[in-house]
Write a structure and sequence with these properties.
The complex is a heterodimer of chains A (316) and B (280). Chain A contains 15 helices and four strands. Chain A has 316 residues and is mainly alpha-helical. In chain A, the strands form two sheets. Chain A has a two-stranded antiparallel sheet with strand order 1-2. The longest helix of chain A has 36 residues. The N terminus of chain A is likely disordered. Chain B has 280 residues and is an all-alpha fold. Chain B has two domains: 61 residues, no CATH class; 172 residues, MetI-like fold (Orthogonal Bundle). In chain B, helix 4 runs parallel beside helix 7, helix 8 packs antiparallel against helix 9 and helix 10 packs antiparallel against helix 13. Chain B is globular, with a radius of gyration of 24 Å. Chain B starts with a helix and ends with a helix. The mean pLDDT of chain B is 88. The chains are: A mainly alpha (316), B mainly alpha (280). At the A-B interface, helix 1, helix 2, helix 4, helix 5 and helix 6 of A face helix 1, helix 4, helix 5, helix 6 and helix 7 of B.
Chain lengths: 316, 280
């Protein structure tokens, strides 16, 4: 890019900011600034304001954050949502990444018949709306319909069936696994793309030397996709800490039972719009959004300066 | 030698068994809903995994959905929002990617980094302020509001993908044009735009699917007045008729059918686009 840009500099870019550059950049820059960057900055600003009964807003500094973290009415649901979100993320990292990796490893085997068909079908749930997926699984797990109960019974495990979505102890795990079921296609396809880009001679050389397939996978192919696993992790992190649709569709804004499936996205929605008797609170909502932004930024920076740098070092 | 062959065959069978097993897990719930949406109520509960037979075949669910909710209208809304946003993302994105990749100017890197923030930071977190702004502009409950937000949301990744793609276009083409005294605008529209057509599929996947499936912004910016998208419309309908299993199953099927059909038709394109995007 630099050499191209330098050459362009010599040929066209004598004047600074010639009109055509402005014309090319302006539409994207304006729409993006107005509807993406400005709202984010304005949300941070709003989080420093409070509102009285009349809706009049006034500057209160970090008051909202103090309330959010110290007032038990706020801090309890906030930390509950944060903890649930961490569990939600952990389940994705462990289950989704390992299944995605396993599927990608199988799909990328040389001369695998029907690889295209598998790929298409395995990626299918990822294309569908989270909302629809939520409802589908709600029906399947419903004791009313009895599909899952029937299946377990057919396997002789009928006694294991329980209304998993309705129980406090199992609801969050169930919802997380449904999300994993839907999004496993993303790590699968990213890792798959990385695996098929490994030069064949590397693997051939090892195979000719008599290395067993599992050894070839663990020692040669896996380390070469570490950077992709890094990308998968950060995408999962940002997606999970921003999730909302699935919980809202399956459990409503209350994220029941008793807040067991409440994550930061649903907590933000309730704070902003209110629910039942509690009125919506835009400035407090802005404070929750700012906290989420902060958490996501910490994750992204940790990835950029911690994980990615280490990976580059490791590969070099 | 036969020993080795037999072991290879056994391994291959195990690989296919594992893949088929997981493929069933991935597709069974979807198939279950499609199958049962075409059955009578007693058959849905009597034998959920059976295919509809002449005696159990029943489209009552679809009838009820089309009577009670304006699914055709919701489809129209979704199609308008998704295609207009995609067009805007493609045009504005290609122009910006071209400017950032082709010309060296003061602040080039800074602008490129600025445009990339949106790849990692979800625009959803700015909702409090977006709602305030949309209300101020009098755009609440309009498709325009959704289109503006989705365009802003789709641009960062589109600029990245299109930029990577444009970098591969040979320099001679534009230099030759420049020597002939062709204007920069004309080079972009006549030389560059036709050449980036293959990247359009990739951008389309990354832009259209999240927009079509989104619940958050339709819920907040356009939840009434017949401006619901299909995702929100289905969500509202199912919430209201939750005990009417025929209608719920039909609504779910109607909401996923267009994406499923498009996906199966274009799946080669889509997966190739995704892998290309991943490899960069």
């Amino acid at each position: 890019m630099t050499s191209i840009a330098m050459a362009a500099d010599a040929s066209v870019g004598r004047r600074r900011w010639p009109t055509h550059i402005v014309v090319f950049l302006a539409p994207a820059f304006l729409v993006y600034t107005l509807f993406s960057i400005y709202p984010l900055i304005d949300t941070i600003r709003l989080s420093l304001y409070g509102a009285d009964e009349t809706g009049q807003q006034s500057f209160i500094g970090i008051g909202n954050f103090v309330t959010l973290l110290t007032d038990p009415n706020w801090s309890k649901p906030f930390w509950n949502a944060f903890r649930n979100n961490l569990i939600f993320f952990a389940i994705h990292m462990v289950v989704q990444t390992s299944i995605g990796l396993a599927l990608a490893a199988l799909l990328s085997l040389p001369r695998l018949k029907g690889a295209g068909v598998y790929r298409t079908l395995l990626f299918m749930p990822t294309m569908l709306s989270v909302v629809i997926i939520g409802f589908i699984w709600q029906l399947i797990l419903s004791p009313l319909w009895g599909i899952s109960k029937g299946f377990l019974a057919a396997l002789g495990l009928g006694s294991l069936f329980a209304p998993w979505l309705g129980q406090e102890g199992t609801a969050l795990i169930t919802v997380s696994l449904i999300s994993v079921w839907q999004f496993v296609g993303i790590p699968m396809i990213l890792i798959y793309a990385a695996l098929i880009n490994i030069p064949d001679d590397l693997i051939d050389a090892a195979t000719v030397d008599g290395a067993p397939p599992f050894y070839v996978f663990w020692v040669i192919r896996l380390p070469l996709v570490y950077p992709t696993l890094g990308v998968v992790s950060i995408l999962t992190f940002v997606g999970n800490f921003n999730a909302f649709d699935l919980i809202y569709a399956m459990k409503g804004a209350q994220a029941g039972p008793n807040g067991a499936t409440d994550i930061l996205g649903t907590f933000f929605y309730r704070t902003f719009f209110g629910y039942q008797l509690q009125a919506g609170n835009p400035t407090m909502g802005a404070a929750v959004a700012t906290m989420m932004l902060f958490i996501i930024m910490v994750g992204v920076l940790f990835y950029l300066f911690g994980v990615q740098r280490k990976l580059q070092h490791h590969l070099a | 030698m036969p020993m080795v062959n037999r072991r290879v065959n056994v391994n291959r069978i195990a690989v296919h068994a594992a893949l088929i097993f997981y493929t069933l897990i991935a597709t069974f719930p979807i198939a279950l809903v499609l199958i049962n949406s075409m059955k009578s109520r007693s058959a849905i509960f009597g034998d959920p995994v059976a295919l509809p037979t002449p005696s159990t075949f029943d489209l009552i669910g679809y009838q009820q959905v089309l009577e009670k909710a304006d699914f055709v209208l919701y489809f129209g809304n979704s199609i308008v929002v998704t295609t207009v946003s995609l067009l805007l993302v493609l045009i504005a994105g290609a122009m910006a990617a071209w400017a950032l990749g082709e010309y060296r100017f003061k602040g080039n890197t800074l602008v490129a980094l600025y445009m990339a923030i949106g790849i990692m930071v979800p625009i959803r977190l700015g909702t409090v302020s977006i709602l305030k702004m949309i209300v101020g502009m009098g755009l609440i409950n309009t498709l325009t509001a959704l289109i503006l937000v989705y365009t802003a949301m789709g641009l960062p990744l589109a600029i990245l993908i299109l930029g990577e793609f444009m970098a591969q276009i040979p320099r001679d083409l534009r230099e030759a044009a420049r020597c002939d005294g062709v204007s920069e605008y004309r080079i972009f529209t006549a030389v560059i735009l036709p050449l980036i057509r293959p990247a359009v599929a990739t951008v389309a996947v990354f832009t259209m699917v999240p927009i079509w499936n989104d619940l958050w912004f339709p819920l907040i910016l356009a939840s009434g007045d017949g401006k619901q998208t299909i995702t929100l419309g289905a969500q509202q309908f199912i919430g209201q008729y939750v005990t009417n299993w025929n209608a719920v199953l039909a609504a779910l099927s109607l909401a996923i059918a267009p994406i499923l059909i498009l996906y199966v038709v274009f799946s080669r394109h889509l997966v190739r686009g995704l892998t290309m995007g991943a490899v960069k």
